[in-house]
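discrete fold record:
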Amino acid sequence: MKRIVIPIILICFLAAGYGCANKAQSGAGVGALAGATIGALTFKNKLLGAAVGAGVGTMMGYIVGNEWDKHDEAKVQKALENGKSGEATSWQNPDTGKHYTATPEHPYMAENKVYRDIMIKDQKDGDTIKAKAWRDDKGVWHLKQ
């Protein structure tokens, strides 16, 4: 029984820490890990408890992480659509309390699409992401890292 539960927990842990995950995916991974651990510890049938716990934890973690993503994504969209080139747009995420700035560059054409480079900086940690964004026919910007 333990031989099955431990690999499930390890897989959840590795999925939570995988490099290119967004907040929703990271939340799902952490939720799965926590849920599997709690489920295995509380259910009589450890395997069933880990499976049920991982499922519920994944769903709850994804929902919470996705809400955080929506707020930050909306601010980046606004910076790309309305921001002046070279001028930073700042905001604070109400759920995490983190402060960010997004600085878009001049738009340019490539592959028959409008592109803008953008720098997104976490003011507390100092982490900076430089990304390319392209605008679709509906006016929605899509980030390409």
